[in-house]
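Record 1 of the preview.
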Amino acid sequence: MTIYTVTYTYDENRADDRAGLLPEHRAWLTGKKDDGALIEAGVYTDSAMALLLFRFDSILTAERELDADPFAVAGLITSRVLHAWKPGWGPVAALAEA
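->
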């Protein structure tokens, strides 16, 4: 499995819409965590952005799964950037080897 870093940039003009969909988004994240795909997720405190770490078998799978995020379905994400990432050391590095 490959680890992917994912950066979301949110539409700052739709913060209320994002807040309204937050329970569905968190349920989606919980499902990804439960199936072993989600490693970590969190928002930046200084911007309308988030960083997520996932394990997927391919970039195509990553894109398909991320397209199903309720925030993406609702058009609340203005930019999504994915990178395959190989951690060199630390707790996430062990996940990359699994």
